Amino acid sequence: MDAIELAQLRTMFIFAPANEGTWHLSYALLATALRERDPDGFLRLDEGTGPLPGAVLHFGVTLEDETVEGMAKLSPEGVSLEDCTASQAAKFAAWLRGAVVPAGVLATFNTEWGLEAGLPDQLVPPVPVPELTEVFLGHLQATVDQD
Question: Is 29 in contact with 111 (CB distance < 8 Å)?
């Protein structure tokens, strides 16, 4: 797969605290941070009365002039972006690291495809967005190579 095709691939990216740590995430904290980042984005808290126990915060955030949907759970603690590119995920991860993840606490990432392929979670390195995009593209390439 060439670099252009790889950059256009869309999947779910999942971000979580590293090493069984915690971000001390709360829906109020995340909702406030999301509203500050994107006042026009949507937020919806589902109380979890369906087949999946526990509340889920659904949100929409603008990344690269497109609304990308995501969700967050407190148990297990984490935030995911649905149907996004590596570039969008990198921009979101950099924002998440600066606005939600406490200083000095590490985050991991994986993708829906990575989980299906049995790839382990990887640390989100503290690098600028272009380098982070390359890390995410490398992960996507590894999932493609698994097929």
Answer: no
- Using DSSP bridges, classify how beta strands 107-111 and 77-84 pair: parallel, antiparallel or unpaired: unpaired
Q: Give the C-alpha distances (Å, rounded to integers) separating 106 from 1, 26, 46, 79.
A: 31, 17, 27, 14
The answer to whether 96 and 15 are in contact (CB under 8 A) is yes
Tokens of 120: 């382990």
φ, ψ for residue 55, nearest 5 deg = -75, 155
Residue 93 tokens read as: 């991860």
Q: What is the pTM of this model?
A: 0.93
C-alpha distances in Å from residue 51, one per residue of 43, 48, 55, 75, 112: 21, 8, 11, 15, 20
Residue pLDDT, tens place only, 48-93: 666 556 789 999 999 999 999 999 999 899 999 999 999 999 999 9
Cβ distance 81 to 68 under 8 Å? Answer: yes
